[in-house]
Predict the structure.
Amino acid sequence: MMLLLLKNHLKRSRPSQLNLTTKNITGITAIFILSVGLLGLMGFVLFQITDSFYRLGLDDVYLKAVFFILLIVLIIYEVVNIIKQLYQNDDNFIYLKLPIKTETVFLSKVIFIYLKQLIVSLLFLSLTAGVYGLVSHQGGGYFVRLIIIGILLPFIPLALASVLSIPVSKLLRIFKKNRTLLTIGLILVLGVFFIGYITFVELILKFIDITAASNNPLIRPEVLEELRTSVQYMQLSKVFYNMLINANFVAFVLNLLIILALLTLLSVGSYFLLKYFYFKTINEQNEKVIITTKHPPKASRPLISIFKKEFKTLSRNPNDAFQAIVMNILMPIFVFFTIKLTSQAGELAVGEEIVPGITILTILIFVLLANGFQGTIISRQKNAYYISKIIPVPMFQQIIFRIGFGYILSILMSTISIIIIVLSGFIGVFQGVFIYVMAIVFLFGYTFNSVASDYKNPQLTANEGGFDEGLNMYNNLLFGLLIAVGLGLINIALPYLLKLFPQMRRFQIMKIFIVDLTAKRVNILLYVVMFVTIISYALFGFFKLRKAVKTA
Amino acid sequence: MLKIMNLTKTYKGALKPAVKNINLSLHKGEIFGFLGLNGAGKSTTFKCITGIQTFDAGTIIIDGYDISKEPLKAKQALGFIPDNHATFEELTGREYIYFMADVYQVSKELRDERIKMFAEMFSMTDALDALIKTYSHGMKQKIAIMGGIIHYPKLWILDEPLVGLDPFSMTEIKNFMKDYIKLGNTIIFSSHVLEIVMDLCTRVGIIHNGEIKGFFDTKEDIKNIYSHYEAIKNQ
């Protein structure tokens, strides 16, 4: 029975079948490119960090920190997974009706969660401790020990997360009734997480900078001492570190026994706690939560009503609210800290001229991130899409008013972001206005293009909030990303051209096309190219949308 | 009120048309029943009439307006309840009905009066201000019906409207439909339950494999309806 349930969990977790039609193929390719790009970037960064710590001789600090981070990440990830799988999954309604012991269902789900964590654990350890093993030329035994650790480690966060999930699920039940509280909570958590993340990256960048300078870098002894002291508190990580690094078999077995004893203790403890709370909690979860509104609606004109409806549906769906509201509201903070961090790194590497280029790149990427949700405007309506089709309001007007809420919020947040960046002295007023205009036109460009794609090929049968729902969004995100990077790179290059050839210079292509240019003229030319590109992007999207709606 | 001429629709990748050469004419004050098995073409016909789907050939005229040429004027005259009774689940029942009333420009007084009447009719008064996503299957269906009728359309189209409703609500809606046509409105609805169609309709069309097999008067052709439908069911 256990195997049967496990098989069922695995089958259901497969991504939905995507049809390889000509319309879908660009979206699937975009998902592939974005995933490979993201993994590649992550691998590159982790490799750099691993290599830097190795060259600094901070092996112990690094490996203990790796285990500590993995434990924390897995605890958070597992709490989310446990809540989704054990408490909120609709399959509980099906399983509870079947002649299967509730304990069997519970155990099969826990094993399924463990299998998911195992993948994360092995992947993360390969990219960190695995890479460390390669750069420090460790023998085969090291990698065998690493695999054993990779298999054992997720059990500890699983036991801890099972217990933590009980109060968290109760808390979520309270949040469920109060959407405003949920949104504020999400904004706070994400904001704090982001600032923490930036601080962490700032520290890492300092290391990379130090190590990049020399193969034998010098770090003040007190800093080294401070780092070593801080990892001393990570007792559990220390056991894993000793288990990994000690080639001595007896020492390995001793550390393994410590881990197994701890695991037994945690498992037994969490089992009894869960036995007491789980079934009680699941019964509470199965009880219907009635959510009511206090303010009666007001009669409005058709288009205003469409605008208001869009705001309500977006703000009341946690997935959409996260992108549409939380990401937009946090945009100024994200932009400020990212520019602060990247400009510091850029100034150190090539000089302060890089800042405007980095600013435009950052703003455009965040505009894209905060407005990605517009690319599923049709698909996320699912079966209710028919309402848009039958009501006597032109489809183009409906779409414009539906995307209006995202526009207002995004334009407002882009304005605040630019004002903060200018007032902080990262860029001048002229540069600020230029970047602002580019960002707004870019916002229109992305939205029109992605909505047009979604209108032409809506994914109405996709899973709600699933990656297949955003099939049309990914290729537009990828294209938008390419434009953002292109424009960012041109802006980064502009000031350096002035340094490169301040005097008139002759350019020729095969002795046919000859032109004399100064760097200033090239800069003007590039500004024109950027404006034409971004305006064409927006206009192309606008006409694409108009045509799609007309021909439907 | 509704005139369909030679309607043909073939879905992309399909080997045969979903509906073929459909011809139908409905008059004011009539309840027309569309009878057919699952996949016969009832829902496709409704999707073409309401403008949800485009069609390959034919003409559909609603209240004097061609749905392909003057879609907004045609849509103003119709109300539609789909078989999946989908609505905007993040809205409350009242917010959803208000939204529908807004887009059809129903005055505040009229909509409130109708909401009160429907809510009492469907025993939904206490649930109106709760989110639709918290409703039961039957309640969602009731709210979809309320949203689709709030503007009192001249042509009311219902796809399998009574499936899943409790007996009390079923009787209420059937009585409402009978009263509604007395106001000069027209109703077309689909079902595969013969008894419901016979109880409500003045005329019946039997559709099978995308083609209309015949029109029957429910008072005069009772025997014919039964024999035709039984023959189709046994195929």
